[in-house]
Amino acid sequence: MAAFSFAEEAVSMDSPAADRAPADLGELYDRHARAAYRLLLAMLGSPQDAEDALSEVFLRAARRDVRQIRAPRAYLLASARNQAISMLRRRKRETPLDPSHYRFFETDGMDPEQALQAQRIEAALRELPPQQREVVVLKVYEGLTFAEIAAITRTRPNTVASRYRYAVEKLRRRLKESLP
Amino acid sequence: MINHEDRELEEKLRSLPTAAPGAGLRDRILRAAARPARRRWGWKPQLAYALILLGLVALDVGMDRVQSARLSELIGDGRRAAAGGAHSIPLKAFRERRAMMLAMLNGERMR
Question: Could you report the per-residue pLDDT of A90-101, keeping only the tens digit for each?
Answer without folding.
Answer: 887 766 667 677
